[in-house]
């Protein structure tokens, strides 16, 4: 029975590459066509595959609907939290997780710094959208036709001399972030606070959340904080892999 299930499940990645005929499925599984046909018929009955008019098979709508439903029910905070705690234990600084909802970027998780000087950020509080590193990552991933109108309707308060001054400067920064795949806020919101951030991506490659490490100048300099970027990006990659189903949580099957 386990071999039958294994073979049936092996068909799905093949069809994810594109439609395939019976012979191609049988060859990939290393079985006779009659065996491949039985497996395909069972998957077809459950809506997991669909037979086209040209007799080739593709993934079925039921499978796609289940995948979408599963993604919608995933709690990114629950998945990310152990990784954020681990990162905090490694570097000691404040770690944030943020998402983009209804034209706002919100913190949905925070692990406090172990140092006496701490940040005033709170879970559920909107971030300073034109300067925050997590906001830059989330907005940089928007399509161009959404990115520009949003940038043009935002206000641009000058929190510090390093704050983003206008829509054109913001769009240039988003383009840079989109290209390099990470973001910083080096004194843009508060002169004494620096931040580095990395994106968390779903199975489709889109950014679903952003995470960051922040610290005041009295604890580490901006240059010292930037040395943590590889660790931050690696952590974001681990969360992305678990969220998208490419990898399992550490310590689990």
TrEMBL record:
Signal peptide: none
Domain HTH iclR-type: residue ranges: 2-61
Transmembrane segments: none
DNA-binding found in the keyword field: yes
Keyword terms of this UniProt record: DNA-binding, Transcription, Transcription regulation
PROSITE patterns per UniProt: HTH_ICLR, ICLR_ED
Keyword DNA-binding in record: yes
Residue span, IclR-ED domain: 62-245
Highest taxon of the lineage: Bacteria
Name by which UniProt lists this protein: IclR family transcriptional regulator
Species name: Streptomyces coerulescens
């Amino acid at each position: 029975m386990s071999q039958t299930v294994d073979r049936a499940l092996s068909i799905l990645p093949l069809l994810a590459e594109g439609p395939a005929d019976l012979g191609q499925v049988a060859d990939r599984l290393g079985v006779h066509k009659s065996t491949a046909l039985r497996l395909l018929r069972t998957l077809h009955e459950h809506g997991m595959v669909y037979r086209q008019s040209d007799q080739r098979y593709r993934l079925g709508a039921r499978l796609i609907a289940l995948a979408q439903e599963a993604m919608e029910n995933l709690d990114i905070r629950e998945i990310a939290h152990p990784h954020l705690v681990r990162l905090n234990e490694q570097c000691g600084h404040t770690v944030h997780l943020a998402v983009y909802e209804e034209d706002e970027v919100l913190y949905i998780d925070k692990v406090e710094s172990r140092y006496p000087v701490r940040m005033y950020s709170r879970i559920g509080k909107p971030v300073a959208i034109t300067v925050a590193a997590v906001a830059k990552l989330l907005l940089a991933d928007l399509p161009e036709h959404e990115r520009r109108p949003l940038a043009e309707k935002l206000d641009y308060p000058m929190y510090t001399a390093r704050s983003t001054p206008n829509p054109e400067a913001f769009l240039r920064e988003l383009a840079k972030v989109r290209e390099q795949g990470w973001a910083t806020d080096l004194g843009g919101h508060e002169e004494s606070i620096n931040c580095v951030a990395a994106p968390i991506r779903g199975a489709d490659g889109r950014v679903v959340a952003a995470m960051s490490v922040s610290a005041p100048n009295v604890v580490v300099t901006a240059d010292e904080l930037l040395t943590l970027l590889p660790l931050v990006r690696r952590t974001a990659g681990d969360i992305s892999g678990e969220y998208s189903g490419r990898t399992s949580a550490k310590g689990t099957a």
